[in-house]
Amino acid sequence: MAEENTELTVAQMSAATGITAHTLRYYERAELIRPVARNSGNQRRYSPADVEWVKFLLRLRETGMPIAQMREYATLREHGPITTEPRLRLLEAHQVGLREQIARLRAHEKALAAKIATYRDDLAARHAHRRNEDDDD
């Protein structure tokens, strides 16, 4: 009975992870999450471990990992500790790409900040010029 209390419905899983029931079903079809346990009424029931796994998948997705790589990682994970090394290599490669993306984004942000500063300086100079013209009148 205590185990039943830890099972989450689709709605509860959605609330716990912030993703829709549709996305949960998609993740299952895409083989990112293993087939979910079902109750006697054939309704999906998620475990706390499923919540943590989906949160990890979301983190991978938010870092730009393609679904195909996520699927590869999920498949390796299903095979257990024997796949620790290939999972590590996959995550390390993704981390390298993520760091490169962050560096590009920082460079873009720096260029954007410089352009914004140029426009602000231009506007400040225009306002100062107008104030000077008004003072001359």
UniProtKB/TrEMBL annotation:
UniProt keyword annotations, A-Z: DNA-binding
Protein name: DNA-binding transcriptional regulator, MerR family
Gene3D superfamilies: 1.10.1660.10
UniProt key word DNA-binding: yes
Domain HTH merR-type stretches: 7-76
Molecular function per GO: DNA binding; DNA-binding transcription factor activity
Species this chain originates from: Propionibacterium cyclohexanicum
Keyword DNA-binding: yes
Lineage: Bacteria, Bacillati, Actinomycetota, Actinomycetes, Propionibacteriales
InterPro entries found in the cross-reference section: DNA-bd_dom_put_sf, MerR-type_HTH_dom, MerR_fam
